[in-house]
Backbone:
Protein backbone atom coordinates (compact mmCIF):
# COMPACT_ATOMS: atom_id res chain seq x y z
CA UNK A 1 0.00 0.00 0.00
CA UNK A 2 1.52 3.29 -1.15
CA UNK A 3 0.76 6.93 -0.42
CA UNK A 4 0.03 7.64 -4.08
CA UNK A 5 -2.58 4.84 -4.13
CA UNK A 6 -4.29 6.33 -1.08
CA UNK A 7 -4.25 9.80 -2.64
CA UNK A 8 -5.92 8.41 -5.78
CA UNK A 9 -8.49 6.58 -3.63
CA UNK A 10 -9.35 9.73 -1.68
CA UNK A 11 -9.65 11.76 -4.89
CA UNK A 12 -12.05 9.25 -6.43
CA UNK A 13 -14.06 9.13 -3.20
CA UNK A 14 -14.31 12.92 -3.32
CA UNK A 15 -15.11 13.42 -7.00
CA UNK A 16 -16.84 10.10 -7.76
CA UNK A 17 -15.28 10.04 -11.26
CA UNK A 18 -11.87 9.01 -12.48
CA UNK A 19 -11.74 12.02 -14.81
CA UNK A 20 -12.16 14.61 -12.05
CA UNK A 21 -9.87 12.66 -9.73
CA UNK A 22 -7.14 12.59 -12.38
CA UNK A 23 -7.49 16.33 -12.95
CA UNK A 24 -7.18 17.07 -9.24
CA UNK A 25 -4.03 14.94 -8.99
CA UNK A 26 -2.58 16.25 -12.30
CA UNK A 27 -2.17 12.72 -13.69
CA UNK A 28 -3.83 10.73 -16.48
CA UNK A 29 -7.06 8.76 -16.10
CA UNK A 30 -5.30 5.42 -16.78
CA UNK A 31 -2.83 6.24 -14.00
CA UNK A 32 -5.67 6.74 -11.49
CA UNK A 33 -7.37 3.53 -12.67
CA UNK A 34 -4.10 1.62 -12.21
CA UNK A 35 -3.53 3.07 -8.72
CA UNK A 36 -7.07 2.07 -7.62
CA UNK A 37 -6.62 -1.44 -9.04
CA UNK A 38 -3.31 -1.83 -7.23
CA UNK A 39 -4.90 -0.64 -3.98
CA UNK A 40 -7.79 -3.10 -4.35
CA UNK A 41 -5.27 -5.88 -4.87
CA UNK A 42 -3.38 -4.74 -1.77
CA UNK A 43 -6.42 -4.57 0.53
CA UNK A 44 -8.07 -7.69 -0.89
CA UNK A 45 -11.57 -6.37 -1.59
CA UNK A 46 -13.29 -4.18 -4.22
CA UNK A 47 -13.56 -0.46 -3.51
CA UNK A 48 -15.84 0.81 -6.27
CA UNK A 49 -18.74 -0.42 -8.39
CA UNK A 50 -19.70 1.16 -11.73
CA UNK A 51 -23.34 2.25 -11.64
CA UNK A 52 -24.68 4.01 -14.77
CA UNK A 53 -21.22 5.23 -15.72
CA UNK A 54 -20.29 6.51 -12.27
CA UNK A 55 -18.17 4.98 -9.55
CA UNK A 56 -20.05 4.00 -6.44
CA UNK A 57 -17.96 3.32 -3.30
CA UNK A 58 -18.52 -0.01 -1.61
CA UNK A 59 -19.32 -0.16 2.10
CA UNK A 60 -15.75 -1.32 2.64
CA UNK A 61 -14.46 1.77 0.77
CA UNK A 62 -16.55 4.05 2.99
CA UNK A 63 -15.07 2.43 6.09
CA UNK A 64 -11.54 2.61 4.71
CA UNK A 65 -11.95 6.25 3.66
CA UNK A 66 -12.30 7.46 7.25
CA UNK A 67 -8.88 6.14 8.15
CA UNK A 68 -7.34 7.26 4.85
CA UNK A 69 -8.58 10.81 5.49
CA UNK A 70 -7.01 10.87 8.95
CA UNK A 71 -3.73 9.42 7.67
CA UNK A 72 -3.41 11.73 4.68
CA UNK A 73 -4.31 14.78 6.72
CA UNK A 74 -1.53 13.76 9.08
CA UNK A 75 0.87 13.42 6.14
CA UNK A 76 -0.19 16.83 4.87
CA UNK A 77 0.48 18.33 8.30
CA UNK A 78 3.93 16.74 8.31
CA UNK A 79 4.64 18.08 4.81
CA UNK A 80 3.38 21.53 5.82
CA UNK A 81 5.54 21.48 8.95
CA UNK A 82 8.59 20.41 6.92
CA UNK A 83 7.99 23.28 4.50
CA UNK A 84 7.64 25.76 7.36
CA UNK A 85 10.93 24.51 8.84
CA UNK A 86 12.64 24.68 5.44
CA UNK A 87 11.37 28.22 4.81
CA UNK A 88 12.29 29.28 8.38
CA UNK A 89 8.70 29.95 9.41
CA UNK A 90 8.64 27.52 12.34
CA UNK A 91 11.01 26.91 15.22
CA UNK A 92 12.59 28.44 18.30
CA UNK A 93 15.92 30.13 18.97
CA UNK A 94 17.63 30.24 22.36
CA UNK A 95 20.20 33.04 22.15
CA UNK A 96 22.76 34.06 24.77
CA UNK A 97 24.93 37.14 24.35
CA UNK A 98 27.34 39.48 26.09
CA UNK A 99 25.76 42.74 27.30
CA UNK A 100 27.33 44.87 24.56
CA UNK A 101 25.24 42.88 22.09
CA UNK A 102 22.26 41.82 24.17
CA UNK A 103 21.13 45.16 25.60
CA UNK A 104 20.00 46.85 22.39
CA UNK A 105 21.94 45.72 19.29
CA UNK A 106 20.58 42.15 19.20
CA UNK A 107 16.99 43.18 20.02
CA UNK A 108 17.05 45.40 16.93
CA UNK A 109 18.62 42.62 14.85
CA UNK A 110 16.00 40.16 16.14
CA UNK A 111 13.22 42.58 15.20
CA UNK A 112 14.49 42.63 11.62
CA UNK A 113 14.75 38.84 11.54
CA UNK A 114 11.22 38.31 12.87
CA UNK A 115 9.84 40.73 10.31
CA UNK A 116 10.70 38.06 7.73
CA UNK A 117 10.12 34.99 9.95
CA UNK A 118 7.22 36.08 12.12
CA UNK A 119 6.31 32.69 13.64
CA UNK A 120 9.77 32.01 15.08
CA UNK A 121 10.06 32.16 18.86
CA UNK A 122 13.19 33.81 20.27
CA UNK A 123 14.59 33.83 23.80
CA UNK A 124 17.51 36.22 24.49
CA UNK A 125 19.64 35.90 27.63
CA UNK A 126 22.20 38.48 28.76
CA UNK A 127 25.41 37.10 30.34
CA UNK A 128 29.14 37.71 30.45
CA UNK A 129 31.08 36.27 27.52
CA UNK A 130 32.56 33.54 29.75
CA UNK A 131 29.09 32.51 30.94
CA UNK A 132 27.82 32.47 27.36
CA UNK A 133 30.61 30.04 26.47
CA UNK A 134 29.51 27.77 29.34
CA UNK A 135 25.88 27.91 28.16
CA UNK A 136 26.88 26.91 24.63
CA UNK A 137 29.16 24.12 25.84
CA UNK A 138 26.34 22.81 28.06
CA UNK A 139 23.91 23.02 25.10
CA UNK A 140 21.63 25.30 27.12
CA UNK A 141 21.35 27.68 24.19
CA UNK A 142 21.38 27.29 20.41
CA UNK A 143 23.77 30.13 19.65
CA UNK A 144 25.96 32.47 21.67
CA UNK A 145 27.49 35.85 20.83
CA UNK A 146 30.62 36.83 22.74
CA UNK A 147 33.39 39.42 22.79
CA UNK A 148 36.20 36.90 22.61
CA UNK A 149 38.47 35.48 19.91
CA UNK A 150 37.33 32.06 18.66
CA UNK A 151 39.41 29.63 20.72
CA UNK A 152 37.17 27.36 22.80
CA UNK A 153 37.56 23.69 21.81
CA UNK A 154 34.10 22.69 23.06
CA UNK A 155 32.19 24.93 20.65
CA UNK A 156 31.81 25.57 16.96
CA UNK A 157 33.09 29.11 16.66
CA UNK A 158 33.48 31.70 13.95
CA UNK A 159 34.15 35.40 13.83
CA UNK A 160 31.00 37.44 13.61
CA UNK A 161 32.78 40.72 12.95
CA UNK A 162 36.12 42.32 13.92
CA UNK A 163 35.94 45.92 15.06
CA UNK A 164 38.30 48.73 16.10
CA UNK A 165 37.86 50.24 19.52
CA UNK A 166 36.80 53.88 19.52
CA UNK A 167 37.41 56.73 21.91
CA UNK A 168 34.28 58.02 23.65
CA UNK A 169 33.97 61.47 25.22
CA UNK A 170 31.32 64.09 25.84
CA UNK A 171 30.53 66.13 22.74
CA UNK A 172 31.69 69.28 24.56
CA UNK A 173 35.10 67.77 25.44
CA UNK A 174 38.20 69.65 24.25
CA UNK A 175 39.19 66.68 22.04
CA UNK A 176 35.79 66.14 20.42
CA UNK A 177 36.74 68.15 17.31
CA UNK A 178 39.76 65.97 16.51
CA UNK A 179 39.53 63.44 13.67
CA UNK A 180 41.63 60.75 15.37
CA UNK A 181 42.57 60.19 19.01
CA UNK A 182 46.01 58.84 19.92
CA UNK A 183 47.40 57.84 23.35
CA UNK A 184 49.30 61.14 23.92
CA UNK A 185 46.01 63.04 23.47
CA UNK A 186 44.68 61.36 26.63
CA UNK A 187 47.63 62.15 28.90
CA UNK A 188 46.36 63.28 32.28
CA UNK A 189 42.70 62.67 31.35
CA UNK A 190 40.24 61.03 33.71
CA UNK A 191 39.71 57.61 32.15
CA UNK A 192 36.73 55.29 32.80
CA UNK A 193 38.02 51.70 32.83
CA UNK A 194 36.72 48.18 32.85
CA UNK A 195 37.75 46.05 35.86
CA UNK A 196 41.06 44.17 35.71
CA UNK A 197 39.22 40.84 35.32
CA UNK A 198 38.14 41.89 31.83
CA UNK A 199 40.78 41.10 29.22
CA UNK A 200 40.38 44.34 27.27
CA UNK A 201 41.42 46.32 30.37
CA UNK A 202 44.80 44.59 30.35
CA UNK A 203 45.36 45.40 26.67
CA UNK A 204 44.35 49.04 27.10
CA UNK A 205 46.62 49.52 30.15
CA UNK A 206 49.51 47.82 28.35
CA UNK A 207 49.10 50.10 25.33
CA UNK A 208 49.19 53.31 27.36
CA UNK A 209 52.13 51.99 29.39
CA UNK A 210 54.06 51.33 26.16
CA UNK A 211 53.62 55.02 25.27
CA UNK A 212 54.53 56.14 28.78
CA UNK A 213 51.15 57.87 29.10
CA UNK A 214 49.55 58.26 32.51
CA UNK A 215 45.78 58.65 32.89
CA UNK A 216 43.67 59.36 35.96
CA UNK A 217 42.04 56.00 36.79
CA UNK A 218 39.44 56.90 39.38
CA UNK A 219 36.30 55.01 38.25
CA UNK A 220 35.59 51.70 36.56
CA UNK A 221 32.57 49.63 35.60
CA UNK A 222 32.06 46.20 34.10
CA UNK A 223 29.62 46.83 31.24
CA UNK A 224 30.46 49.03 28.23
CA UNK A 225 27.01 50.64 28.41
CA UNK A 226 27.93 51.71 31.95
CA UNK A 227 31.21 53.14 30.65
CA UNK A 228 29.27 55.33 28.24
CA UNK A 229 26.90 56.41 31.00
CA UNK A 230 29.85 57.43 33.18
CA UNK A 231 31.45 59.35 30.33
CA UNK A 232 28.14 61.12 29.68
CA UNK A 233 28.04 62.03 33.38
CA UNK A 234 31.37 63.83 33.01
CA UNK A 235 33.55 61.23 34.76
CA UNK A 236 36.13 61.02 31.99
CA UNK A 237 36.84 59.54 28.57
CA UNK A 238 37.25 55.90 27.58
CA UNK A 239 37.66 53.29 24.86
CA UNK A 240 34.69 51.14 23.87
CA UNK A 241 33.72 48.77 21.08
CA UNK A 242 31.84 50.33 18.13
CA UNK A 243 28.67 48.29 18.71
CA UNK A 244 28.34 49.94 22.10
CA UNK A 245 29.11 53.26 20.40
CA UNK A 246 26.37 52.60 17.86
CA UNK A 247 23.79 52.06 20.59
CA UNK A 248 24.74 55.33 22.40
CA UNK A 249 24.97 57.62 19.40
CA UNK A 250 23.09 60.89 19.75
CA UNK A 251 23.28 60.95 23.55
CA UNK A 252 25.65 63.90 23.92
CA UNK A 253 28.69 61.71 23.23
CA UNK A 254 31.31 61.74 20.50
CA UNK A 255 32.92 58.53 19.22
CA UNK A 256 36.20 59.03 17.39
CA UNK A 257 38.66 56.65 15.71
CA UNK A 258 41.53 55.59 17.96
CA UNK A 259 45.06 54.78 16.86
CA UNK A 260 46.95 52.53 17.08
CA UNK A 261 44.23 50.07 16.13
CA UNK A 262 42.90 47.89 18.94
CA UNK A 263 40.76 45.06 17.59
CA UNK A 264 37.69 43.72 19.38
CA UNK A 265 36.53 40.35 18.07
CA UNK A 266 32.84 39.54 18.23
CA UNK A 267 32.40 35.79 17.83
CA UNK A 268 29.45 33.45 17.39
CA UNK A 269 29.43 30.05 19.08
CA UNK A 270 27.28 26.94 18.63
CA UNK A 271 27.43 23.56 20.43
CA UNK A 272 30.16 21.32 19.04
CA UNK A 273 28.18 18.06 19.41
CA UNK A 274 25.44 19.04 16.99
CA UNK A 275 25.40 20.83 13.67
CA UNK A 276 23.74 24.21 13.37
CA UNK A 277 20.13 24.14 12.21
CA UNK A 278 18.95 26.02 9.12
CA UNK A 279 17.32 28.49 11.50
CA UNK A 280 20.51 29.16 13.49
CA UNK A 281 22.57 29.55 10.31
CA UNK A 282 20.06 32.00 8.83
CA UNK A 283 19.92 33.99 12.07
CA UNK A 284 23.71 34.26 12.34
CA UNK A 285 23.93 35.36 8.71
CA UNK A 286 21.25 37.99 9.37
CA UNK A 287 23.05 39.34 12.46
CA UNK A 288 26.36 39.56 10.59
CA UNK A 289 24.79 41.48 7.70
CA UNK A 290 22.94 43.69 10.18
CA UNK A 291 26.20 44.54 11.97
CA UNK A 292 28.02 45.39 8.74
CA UNK A 293 25.13 47.58 7.59
CA UNK A 294 24.82 49.41 10.92
CA UNK A 295 28.45 50.04 11.86
CA UNK A 296 30.58 52.95 10.70
CA UNK A 297 33.00 51.40 8.14
CA UNK A 298 35.88 53.26 9.84
CA UNK A 299 35.35 51.10 12.90
CA UNK A 300 35.26 47.71 11.14
CA UNK A 301 38.50 45.77 10.85
CA UNK A 302 39.17 43.64 7.72
Residues:
Amino acid sequence: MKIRQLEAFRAVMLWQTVTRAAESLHVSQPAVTRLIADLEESVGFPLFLRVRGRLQPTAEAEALNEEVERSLLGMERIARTAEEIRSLQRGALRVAAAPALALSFLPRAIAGFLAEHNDIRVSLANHSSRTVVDLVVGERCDVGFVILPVSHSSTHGERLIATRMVCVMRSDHRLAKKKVIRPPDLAGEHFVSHPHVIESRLHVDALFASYGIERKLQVETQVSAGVCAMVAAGLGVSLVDPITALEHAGQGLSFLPFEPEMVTDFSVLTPVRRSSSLLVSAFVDHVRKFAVAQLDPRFVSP
User: Anything to note?
Assistant: Strands lie at 48-51, 54-57, 92-97, 121-126, 143-146, 155-164, 166-170, 238-240, 253-257, 263-271.
